[in-house]
Amino acid sequence: VRLLITAGPTREYLDDVRYLSNASSGQMGFALAQAAVDAGHRVSLVSGPVHLCPPAGCDYYPVETSREMYEACERLFLGCDGVIGAAAVCDYRPKRRAAGKLSKTGQGLSLELEETADILAALGAKKESRFILGFALESTDRRANALRKLGAKNCDAIVLNTPEAIGSATTSVELISRDGQTVATYAGSKPEVAKSLIAWLTAQIAGQQGR
Ligand code: C5P
Question: Which pTM was predicted?
Fold first, then answer.
Protein backbone atom coordinates (compact mmCIF):
# COMPACT_ATOMS: atom_id res chain seq x y z
CA VAL A 1 0.00 0.00 0.00
CA ARG A 2 1.32 3.45 -0.90
CA LEU A 3 0.76 6.05 1.81
CA LEU A 4 1.15 9.80 1.69
CA ILE A 5 1.88 11.20 5.15
CA THR A 6 2.13 14.88 6.09
CA ALA A 7 4.05 15.93 9.18
CA GLY A 8 5.46 18.85 11.12
CA PRO A 9 4.60 22.53 11.16
CA THR A 10 4.60 24.94 8.24
CA ARG A 11 6.21 28.38 8.09
CA GLU A 12 4.32 31.33 6.72
CA TYR A 13 6.68 34.17 5.92
CA LEU A 14 5.96 37.85 6.53
CA ASP A 15 9.33 38.87 5.13
CA ASP A 16 12.39 36.95 4.02
CA VAL A 17 13.56 36.16 7.55
CA ARG A 18 10.43 36.11 9.74
CA TYR A 19 7.56 33.67 9.79
CA LEU A 20 4.50 32.47 11.67
CA SER A 21 4.56 28.83 12.73
CA ASN A 22 3.63 26.53 15.61
CA ALA A 23 5.31 24.17 18.06
CA SER A 24 4.73 20.94 16.12
CA SER A 25 7.84 18.75 16.35
CA GLY A 26 6.86 16.34 13.58
CA GLN A 27 7.27 13.37 15.93
CA MET A 28 3.79 11.92 15.33
CA GLY A 29 4.03 12.11 11.53
CA PHE A 30 7.54 10.67 11.51
CA ALA A 31 6.51 7.89 13.91
CA LEU A 32 3.61 7.07 11.57
CA ALA A 33 5.99 6.99 8.61
CA GLN A 34 8.34 4.66 10.50
CA ALA A 35 5.49 2.37 11.57
CA ALA A 36 4.13 2.30 8.02
CA VAL A 37 7.54 1.37 6.57
CA ASP A 38 7.88 -1.32 9.26
CA ALA A 39 4.46 -2.66 8.23
CA GLY A 40 5.69 -3.01 4.64
CA HIS A 41 4.02 0.04 3.10
CA ARG A 42 5.58 2.46 0.64
CA VAL A 43 5.64 5.88 2.23
CA SER A 44 5.93 9.40 0.86
CA LEU A 45 6.58 11.72 3.81
CA VAL A 46 5.96 15.42 3.21
CA SER A 47 7.14 17.46 6.18
CA GLY A 48 7.62 21.03 7.26
CA PRO A 49 10.86 22.01 9.03
CA VAL A 50 11.69 19.63 11.91
CA HIS A 51 14.78 18.36 13.72
CA LEU A 52 14.21 14.71 12.88
CA CYS A 53 15.76 12.24 10.44
CA PRO A 54 13.26 10.72 8.03
CA PRO A 55 12.83 6.96 8.48
CA ALA A 56 15.05 4.86 6.23
CA GLY A 57 13.08 3.48 3.33
CA CYS A 58 10.56 6.28 2.90
CA ASP A 59 10.56 8.94 0.17
CA TYR A 60 11.12 12.24 1.90
CA TYR A 61 9.85 15.59 0.64
CA PRO A 62 10.87 18.47 2.92
CA VAL A 63 8.88 21.68 2.50
CA GLU A 64 8.59 24.98 4.35
CA THR A 65 5.30 26.72 3.64
CA SER A 66 1.73 25.45 3.52
CA ARG A 67 1.71 26.33 -0.17
CA GLU A 68 4.74 24.11 -0.80
CA MET A 69 3.16 21.32 1.26
CA TYR A 70 -0.04 21.66 -0.75
CA GLU A 71 1.82 21.45 -4.06
CA ALA A 72 3.90 18.44 -2.99
CA CYS A 73 0.77 16.61 -1.76
CA GLU A 74 -1.15 17.38 -4.96
CA ARG A 75 1.70 15.82 -6.97
CA LEU A 76 2.02 12.71 -4.79
CA PHE A 77 -1.70 12.13 -4.26
CA LEU A 78 -2.34 10.44 -7.60
CA GLY A 79 0.11 7.66 -6.84
CA CYS A 80 -1.11 6.85 -3.35
CA ASP A 81 -3.80 4.57 -1.87
CA GLY A 82 -4.11 6.38 1.43
CA VAL A 83 -3.34 9.71 3.08
CA ILE A 84 -2.54 10.52 6.70
CA GLY A 85 -2.68 14.22 7.53
CA ALA A 86 -0.57 14.58 10.65
CA ALA A 87 0.91 17.97 9.77
CA ALA A 88 0.10 21.03 11.87
CA VAL A 89 -0.50 23.21 8.83
CA CYS A 90 -0.77 26.91 9.68
CA ASP A 91 -4.35 28.05 9.18
CA TYR A 92 -3.31 31.63 8.35
CA ARG A 93 -0.49 33.28 6.46
CA PRO A 94 0.51 36.92 6.03
CA LYS A 95 -1.34 38.32 3.06
CA ARG A 96 1.85 39.91 1.78
CA ARG A 97 5.44 38.73 2.07
CA ALA A 98 7.81 41.71 2.14
CA ALA A 99 11.06 41.40 0.22
CA GLY A 100 14.13 41.51 2.43
CA LYS A 101 13.70 42.31 6.13
CA LEU A 102 11.05 44.70 7.41
CA SER A 103 12.68 47.55 9.35
CA LYS A 104 11.45 48.92 12.65
CA THR A 105 9.59 52.18 12.35
CA GLY A 106 9.03 53.07 16.00
CA GLN A 107 5.33 52.28 15.54
CA GLY A 108 3.33 49.11 15.99
CA LEU A 109 2.90 46.76 13.06
CA SER A 110 -0.41 45.27 11.96
CA LEU A 111 -0.30 42.10 9.93
CA GLU A 112 -3.07 41.20 7.56
CA LEU A 113 -3.58 37.44 7.48
CA GLU A 114 -5.43 35.25 5.03
CA GLU A 115 -6.51 31.63 5.37
CA THR A 116 -4.26 29.00 3.87
CA ALA A 117 -5.73 26.32 1.62
CA ASP A 118 -6.83 23.20 3.49
CA ILE A 119 -4.64 20.44 2.09
CA LEU A 120 -6.52 17.49 3.55
CA ALA A 121 -9.88 18.90 2.48
CA ALA A 122 -8.59 19.37 -1.08
CA LEU A 123 -7.33 15.78 -1.19
CA GLY A 124 -10.46 14.46 0.54
CA ALA A 125 -12.63 16.11 -2.11
CA LYS A 126 -11.12 13.86 -4.78
CA LYS A 127 -10.36 10.81 -2.67
CA GLU A 128 -12.13 8.15 -4.79
CA SER A 129 -11.19 4.83 -3.16
CA ARG A 130 -8.30 6.23 -1.13
CA PHE A 131 -8.37 5.94 2.64
CA ILE A 132 -8.03 9.31 4.35
CA LEU A 133 -7.04 9.63 8.00
CA GLY A 134 -7.07 13.11 9.52
CA PHE A 135 -5.92 14.52 12.84
CA ALA A 136 -7.83 16.97 14.99
CA LEU A 137 -6.12 18.81 17.82
CA GLU A 138 -8.91 20.19 19.96
CA SER A 139 -9.13 21.93 23.31
CA THR A 140 -12.89 22.59 23.56
CA ASP A 141 -15.97 20.78 22.17
CA ARG A 142 -13.43 18.19 21.17
CA ARG A 143 -15.64 15.44 19.79
CA ALA A 144 -18.03 17.77 17.98
CA ASN A 145 -15.15 19.66 16.36
CA ALA A 146 -13.41 16.46 15.35
CA LEU A 147 -16.60 15.11 13.80
CA ARG A 148 -17.19 18.34 11.92
CA LYS A 149 -13.64 18.20 10.50
CA LEU A 150 -14.01 14.53 9.64
CA GLY A 151 -17.03 15.43 7.49
CA ALA A 152 -15.67 18.68 6.04
CA LYS A 153 -12.42 17.03 4.94
CA ASN A 154 -14.15 13.86 3.71
CA CYS A 155 -12.00 11.66 5.95
CA ASP A 156 -12.67 7.98 6.64
CA ALA A 157 -11.55 8.46 10.21
CA ILE A 158 -10.02 11.11 12.43
CA VAL A 159 -7.55 10.96 15.29
CA LEU A 160 -8.60 13.28 18.10
CA ASN A 161 -5.83 14.54 20.36
CA THR A 162 -5.19 17.50 22.64
CA PRO A 163 -2.79 20.48 22.59
CA GLU A 164 -0.58 18.68 25.16
CA ALA A 165 0.47 16.35 22.32
CA ILE A 166 2.20 19.18 20.45
CA GLY A 167 5.95 18.81 20.77
CA SER A 168 5.55 16.03 23.38
CA ALA A 169 7.09 12.55 23.16
CA THR A 170 3.82 10.96 24.30
CA THR A 171 0.20 11.29 23.24
CA SER A 172 -3.25 10.07 24.06
CA VAL A 173 -5.70 9.76 21.19
CA GLU A 174 -9.24 8.74 20.33
CA LEU A 175 -9.79 7.23 16.91
CA ILE A 176 -13.21 8.11 15.48
CA SER A 177 -14.64 6.48 12.38
CA ARG A 178 -16.87 8.06 9.76
CA ASP A 179 -20.06 6.98 11.48
CA GLY A 180 -19.01 8.89 14.62
CA GLN A 181 -18.08 5.79 16.63
CA THR A 182 -14.98 5.72 18.81
CA VAL A 183 -13.10 2.79 17.31
CA ALA A 184 -10.22 2.80 19.78
CA THR A 185 -8.25 4.89 22.23
CA TYR A 186 -4.47 4.66 22.37
CA ALA A 187 -2.02 6.24 24.79
CA GLY A 188 1.74 5.99 25.09
CA SER A 189 4.85 7.10 23.26
CA LYS A 190 4.21 8.44 19.77
CA PRO A 191 5.95 5.40 18.18
CA GLU A 192 3.67 3.06 20.17
CA VAL A 193 0.52 5.00 19.25
CA ALA A 194 1.68 5.23 15.62
CA LYS A 195 2.13 1.46 15.48
CA SER A 196 -1.43 0.89 16.70
CA LEU A 197 -2.84 3.44 14.26
CA ILE A 198 -0.97 1.91 11.31
CA ALA A 199 -2.12 -1.60 12.28
CA TRP A 200 -5.72 -0.37 12.32
CA LEU A 201 -5.31 1.55 9.04
CA THR A 202 -3.71 -1.47 7.34
CA ALA A 203 -6.66 -3.66 8.34
CA GLN A 204 -9.11 -1.02 7.07
CA ILE A 205 -7.41 -0.70 3.70
CA ALA A 206 -7.14 -4.49 3.36
CA GLY A 207 -10.88 -4.73 4.11
CA GLN A 208 -11.68 -2.03 1.57
CA GLN A 209 -9.60 -3.70 -1.12
CA GLY A 210 -11.16 -7.08 -0.32
CA ARG A 211 -14.66 -5.76 -1.05
O1 C5P B 1 -8.70 22.28 10.56
P2 C5P B 1 -7.60 21.67 11.36
O3 C5P B 1 -6.27 22.35 11.12
O4 C5P B 1 -7.85 21.49 12.80
O5 C5P B 1 -7.56 20.20 10.76
C6 C5P B 1 -6.66 19.26 11.13
C7 C5P B 1 -6.44 18.26 10.00
O8 C5P B 1 -6.43 18.88 8.71
C9 C5P B 1 -5.07 17.63 10.14
O10 C5P B 1 -5.13 16.32 9.61
C11 C5P B 1 -4.21 18.56 9.31
O12 C5P B 1 -3.02 17.91 8.87
C13 C5P B 1 -5.13 18.91 8.15
N14 C5P B 1 -4.93 20.26 7.57
C15 C5P B 1 -4.44 20.39 6.28
N16 C5P B 1 -4.30 21.65 5.73
C17 C5P B 1 -4.64 22.76 6.42
C18 C5P B 1 -5.15 22.62 7.73
C19 C5P B 1 -5.28 21.36 8.26
O20 C5P B 1 -4.11 19.38 5.64
N21 C5P B 1 -4.49 23.96 5.86
Answer: 0.97
